[in-house]
Amino acid sequence: DQSDATKVVVTPKHPHVLKSHSILLKCLSEYDSHLKHSFKLSWRKDGNELPVNSTEDGRIILDRDTLFISSVTLEDQGVYTCVASTSLDSVAAESQLIVLDVPDPPEDLQLSEHQNRSVRLSWKAGATHNSPVNESIVEFEESRLESGRWQELTRVPGNDTTALLSLAPYVDYQFRVVSVNAVGRSQPSKPSLRYATPPAAPDKNPENIRVEASEPNEMVMKWEPLKLMERNGPGLEYKVSWRQQGVEVDWNEETVKKHSLTLRNTPTFVPYEIKVQAVNNLGSGPEPNVTIGYSGEDIPDAAPSVVSVDVMNSTLVKVFWLGIPRDRVRGHLKGYKVSWWKTKSMLDGKRHHPEKHFLTFVGDRNNGMVPGLEPFSEFRLSVAAYNSKGDGPESSPVVFETPEGVPEQPRFLRILNFDKDSVTLSWGLPKRANGHLTGYVLQYQTINETHEIGPLNDISVANHSTLSWRLSGLNSSTKYKFYVKACTVKGCGKPVTEEGLTMAQGSKGSGKNSEAVKPTQKFHPIEALEPGTDYTVRLVTKNWVDNNSIFEDVIETRGRAYAGIYDGISTQGWFIGLMCAIALLTLLLLTICFVRRNKGGKYSVKEKEDLHPDPEAQSIKDEIFGEYSDSDEKPLKGSLQSVNGDIKATESADSLVDYGEGEHGMFNEDGSFIGAYSGSKEKGSVESTGSSTATFPLHA
C-alpha cells in the first residue's frame, strides 16, 4: 500500500512576547498509522537541537509536541523548529519568537551651542528591543538649590536624539535622558557634564497680591513668593509700594525679604493702591501691576432708619427699612439682620419674657418677609446692618400686632357613651386658640373596612364654653369617624379625630353613676354588671365641669361560663344534697362514739380501752378524733345534749351562704374555691388546724 506523507505545523507562527513573560509552542503533526512505531518529534533553536530534558532549572520544558518557556529573556529570541520523522520521510515547521523589552538607556550625552539662557543636548539611542522609541524625556538636576533632585525639563517626540534646552539664569545644570517605547521607559542615561547659567535680574513679580485685615486700623499685605527657579540671582527681596487711593499722591515704599507686610494706624476700611516688585543683586523685575486693597474693618456704626412693618396675615409680616450710608458700614456690607420678640398675648394680655428671634437678609437690600409669627400677639422688631466684623447697632424697635388666626386642633377627643343610635363626645380646648373662640364644628361620617366613607354631617356648636355634645340619630352596629374643630372669627382649625362603633339593636348602652367616692378611698366596688360585656369605667370630679376624666379605662366582665360557677353553685341540687349527706354522716358517727363511752360505766374512756381493747372502735376513734388528751375526759361525760346543740351551731356556721356568695368567699380564675370557713367561731364550731392531729373542743 502507498503511505500518506507526514505533515507538521507549529503554533503560534510569529509570537511577540514581553520579556519576563512566558510562551507555549505546540507542534501539530499527521503521519501514516502504519509508521507510528518509527514516528518521533524533536525541537531545534536556530538550527541546534534542544535536549529532551529540562534546561536552565526548568525554565525551558520540552514535552514531546510542546515547548514551554517561562520568564522569557532576550536570549530566547530566535527561530524554533519542530522536526517530525518516520522511517520513510522527515518534515520540519518553524516559529519566529520575537522578545519585546524597554529600550536600553541612551548613551554619549554631549552639550553644544552654549548660551546664557539655552544649550543644545545630543545623545545616542540605545537598542529598542523590537519596539521603536516614540519619545525621549530630558531631566535636569541643579546643585545650588535642590541638589540630587531630578526634575523633568522637556520631552522630545519620536526618535530624535537632539534638543535645544531653554534654561533659567543662576542655575548649575546637569542633564540625563530617558527613552520611551510601547513597552515602557528605559533606565536613565548617565548624567551629562554640568552647565552653569549666569545670574540676571528677575523676569517676573509676585502674584496673588491680597490684603488680609484682622483688626481695625490695620492692613496686612500678602503675596505668593517667587519659586526657586524664578529668582534669577542672589539677594532676592520684595519692594512693596502703597498709597491711599484718591488721597495720597506719593508712594510709600518698603523692601522686605518675607512675603508679607503689616501697616498699622491706618484709617478704618479705606482703599489703598498696592504694588509688589521682585528685586535681586542684579536688578529689579518688570514694572508691577497695581492692586486695590482695603484696610481693616470695624462693625457698622449706624443703624437702619425708617423701619416699618406691613402685616400680611396672622403669621407673616413684611419689613421695610432705609439702609445705612456706605461710609458708615466700615467694611464690606454683608447684609441686614432683623430681630423680633413677642411682648404680650392679645387674648389674655399676659406679658411675655422677651425671647429674641433673628432672620438674616444677605446683600444690600431694604425689605424682607418674616414668617412663623404667633397670631393675635404684640411684637417688637428692629433691624441692624452687619459686615464681616459683626453686627452694627439696632434700629429703634417698632411695635406691631398680628391679627387673630384659626385655632390649633383640640387637645383630645373622647367618646364617652355609645348607644345603638347615639353617642356623647367630649373634647379639650385647643393648645393655642390664636384668637377669641367662637365655638366648635362637629363632623361625623360612616366608615368601613374597605375604606368607603359616607357623607360628612356637620353640627355647629355656637357656645365656645361647650366641651361635650350628644349626637343622636345614628345607625346601630355602624362604625363612625368623628371630627371636632375649634373656630374663631378667622375660621376653623385642624380637626381632632376619633373612631367608634355604635351598639347593636336591642343591646343596652346606658351608663350609671355611683355614689360619691371619698378622696381617701383606694378602691370602690362596682356591682350588678352584665357578664361578658364591655364597660367604660371613668373617674371624674363630682361637678364634672371640664369634661376631663381623672381616670378612664375599658374593661370586659367575665362570661357566663365563669359567672355560672360563682353565682349558681349554692343553688345547685346536687351540691345541697352532698352537704346534707356529709352532715348526717358526721352526726351518726358522733352518736355512736358517745353511746360506746356511756357503756363504760365509771371508768374513763382511756382506762376502759386499756382493759378491753376494741380494735374496731380504736380504728374509728383514730380515724375520726385523732388523739385525746387527759383533760378531755370530764367534759365528754354525759354531754350528748350539748353535742347535739353544738352540731346545730356547726351546721349554721357551715352555711353555704358564707362561702358561696358572701363577701369573704373567694374563687380562683377557673372558679375553684380557695376561701376558708367564714362563719363566726361560736361554741362548738369546727376549726381545722391543717395538721395530722385534729382536736374538737366541745364544751358542756
From TrEMBL:
GO BP term, pick one: cell-cell adhesion
Statement: the UniProt record of this protein carries the keyword Membrane: yes
SMART domains in the record: FN3, IG, IGc2
UniProt key word Membrane: yes
Residue ranges annotated for the Ig-like domain, each copy included: 6-98
Polar residues: bias regions: 686-700
Name of this protein: NCHL1 protein
